[in-house]
Amino acid sequence: MTPREQTAAALGVIARVSGQRVDPPTLMPAEIILELSGEAVRSRLCTFTDATGQEFCLRPDLTTPIARQVASGDIPATRYHCAGPVYRLPPFGSNEAVEHVQVGFEWFGMAGSPDEDAEALAVALEAAKAGGATKAIVRFGDVAIYHAVIDALPFSPQWRGRLRRAFSRRKGPRELLANISNETTSPLAARIAAMPLAEGVKAVEGMIADLGVQTVGARGADDIAERLRDRAGDITPDTRIAAALMKYMDINAPVGSCAAAVEAFARDAKLDIAPTLEAFRKRLDRIAALKSPFWADATFSAEAGRRFEYYDGFVFELVRESALDRPLVSGGRYDGLIKRLSGGKRTASAIGAALRVDRLEQRGAA
Amino acid sequence: MTLRFAVPSKGRLKEQVEGFFAEAGFRIEPLGGARGYFARIFGLPDVEVRLLSAGEIASGVISGDIHAGVTGEDLLREQAGDLERVVHLLAPLGFGRADLVVAVPKSWLDVETMADIDDVGGRLEARTGRKLRVATKYVRSTRRFFTAEGVGHYRIVESAGATEGAPAAGVADIVVDITTTGATLASNGLKIVADGVIVASEANVAASLSAAWTPASLVAFRSLIMAIATKIPHAVGRFERFESALKAQGKPLNHGD
Fold it and tell me: A228 — contact with chain B (CB < 8 Å)?
């Protein structure tokens, strides 16, 4: 198949159940992406600056510009499909093209149920098959289980926040927890925490004045005192708690036994995450009933989805054994994205997937 | 073909490089009058010396336009994607010291580490909806370091002039800047974060793996390394490692050019 035929075939499968076609703008303020994914993505963005100094970028995916239109109220929160070029600078040492075609769908504002998860996965995999994908495997995960495990383990609130954030970072939960024995407590924090808040603020003001400086910008003495108080309650997790989380992160299991593996983990660690596990099992049942291509050999990985900042539930990728970091398809649930993009003004459940047309067929295959 | 070797064309670094070579018994003398883009080293006739800014020398050895040069490690790391793959550092010269560091306002009594910065950034974003602003000229080094240290919730504000003044001026919250003694940062009300030293840099002899090397230019380079080996003995071993890395690339050493 030519790339054009691949695109048409994949899009045909998707369009049947994905409402209207939407063609989002190619250009967007670079800030949107940087705010969403952080400065670390900048090296992959095609950016330029206008005469006034505002920085723009070419869309690195189709999800963000479409979600932006939904978040701003320009288009209603419903089902969409899309196809078009996206632009990403290849990582150092890679020879992949900067511009490549993505085909995908974004479903907003639906129930956000296990049924919808299953349907989205099935559509994405059928589309990949129609577009020429062969000999690929599904890796999937559920970021919601990671969040539930962290909430159920006795971490301090500060550590919960840290571990949530670390999930999508290069210095991930493993690296963070590997260094816990090096954490030291702050005598200053303990001193401030022992005072009533107002006194603590006064003490901080005094210390800053003693240094011969003034507070600058966004952080006043009250903010600093408040954080010192929080730090005093920021208890370094016990190594056994850290080990329990590591045990979850280590779970890799074939689709047939993954629910049992996660349940066994929860039982051994004495964690009550029953509602999350029930939703997980329900989703697996729904997916199994749809008999999607590639699914029979799927693998669950607790770490799946780590490379994307906005996924917050079910995540999946279609990959080749020989190139695990270059997915043919990636998709998942991102229920929090519209809220983040709209600054809290709108909310909408969301699930979507994107296919990279240039990776669908194995190069060199006859 | 001779060796294209670049040294700094101005400032204190220029004097220090000239002093270094003179002490080793090899005087650098400018050619072509006052314009002075070229020089030669007495005793090393096959070395063609170019006078460039330290930043130009860094980009020159990375691109391979020059075979080798004296410049700061900080500039090389900022400009190269993966420095070790394109450049070898053969001889730290013991001057031109400059540390690239992360510094925060002294009033931030609660901040001692990079982990604190991530935490402060997260709280700031939750409270105000905007990210922590980091002023720097070293955009790539900053981005790489913050990613490796697990720091998010920040935006880089590219600074053109006096970076250390950015927090006081209200255009940034913290800075990533070059310092030798820390005095300039301190006098601007800033303190260096304990684990925030990105590069402890000094002037170094940088050799390019991407330049077009010939047997003759390699011989000339070896004689230059021997000349400084009286002051920096381990430069010889590093030169030999560079030579094998160059040969391991499998590119023929060109006789033409």
Answer: yes
Nearest-5° Cα angle at A144, A142 to A145:
75
A35 touches chain B (CB under 8 A): yes
Fold of A3-149+247-360: BirA Bifunctional Protein; domain 2 (3.30.930)
The rounded distance, in Å, linking the Cα atoms of A337 and A108 is: 10
Q: For residues B39 and B30, what is the distance between their CA atoms, to the nearest angstrom?
A: 4
Model confidence at A220: pLDDT above 60 = yes
User: Which residues on chain B are in Cβ contact (under 8 Å) with A211?
Assistant: 106-107
My answer on whether B160 and B232 are in the same domain is no
Q: Chain B contacts of A213, Cβ < 8 Å? A: 105-107, 189
> What is the predicted pLDDT for the residue at A182?
63
Q: Of the given ranges (A77-91, A345-359, B114-128, B196-210), which has the lowest mean pLDDT?
A: B114-128
Which of residues 57 through 86 in chain B touch A, CB cutoff 8 A? 81-82
- Closest by CA to A203, choosing from A172, A177, A224, is A224
**Within an 8 Å CB–CB cutoff, is residue B131 touching chain A?**
yes
Per-residue pLDDT at A365: 44
Q: Of B201, B217, B232, which residue is a domain's last?
A: B201
For position B89, what pLDDT does the model report?
A: 96
Reported in sequence order, the residue ranges of B115-244 that DSSP labels E, i.e. its strands, are 132-136, 154-158, 174-179, 190-201, 203-208
Share of chain B above pLDDT 90, in %: 72
Comparing alpha-carbon positions, the chain B residue that sits nearest to A190 is: B110
Contact B119 A162 (CB under 8 A): yes
Beta bridge partners of A356: A102
ipTM for the predicted complex comes to 0.81
Closest CA to B31 of B9, B15, B11: B9
- Same domain, yes or no, for B167 and B43? no
pLDDT of A234 higher than 90: no
Q: Is the pLDDT of residue B33 over 80?
A: no
Residues 6+ apart with CB under 8 A from B101: B176, B177, B178, B179, B182, B185, B192, B193, B196, B197, B198
d(CA B126, nearest CA chain A) in Å: 11
Domain extent for B160 = 98-201
CB nearest to A217's CB, from B106, B129, B167:
B167
Are B71 and B8 in contact, with CB atoms under 8 Å apart? yes
Is the confidence at residue B215, as pLDDT, over 80?
Answer: yes
Question: Would you call B110 an interface residue with chain A, using a CB distance cutoff of 8 Å?
Answer: yes
| CA distance readout (Å), A343 to A48, A72, A309, B199 | 25, 10, 17, 37
Q: Distance from A217 to chain B by nearest Cα, in Å?
A: 6
What CATH number is attached to the domain comprising B90?
3.40.190.10
pLDDT given at position A324: 85
Contacts of A336 in chain B (CB under 8 A): none
A343/B107 Cβ within 8 A: no
Asked if A219 reaches chain B (Cβ–Cβ under 8 Å), the answer is yes
Cβ pair B148:A224 closer than 8 A: no
pLDDT, average across residues A171-200: 84
